[in-house]
Amino acid sequence: MKIAVTGGAGFIGSALLGALAGEPDVRVVILDRQWEGAAATEADVAGKRRPTYNADLTDREAIADILRFEEPDAVVHLAAIPATDVADADGGTGTSQQ
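Structure (tokenized):
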């Protein structure tokens, strides 16, 4: 089974990835709008390399392209704006970065 995890670099997402790392039949794809640093091509989660996309969920075309390419069986949506000041800065859309 292949699972796409939005917000996979966040606190809850990384905890889920750690739990899934022990599942031999589960492949994980990480989608996360990484606030710090450049786009990663793979992440090392519990000793396993995972495809990682620096993707913003408000970019529907980019997300659709990733999901078409990866063809996950399920999507676990854990992406969130981590701070209210970020949401307040752009009217709640979460599209501006500080």
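The chain has a mean pLDDT of 79. DSSP finds three helices and five strands in the chain.
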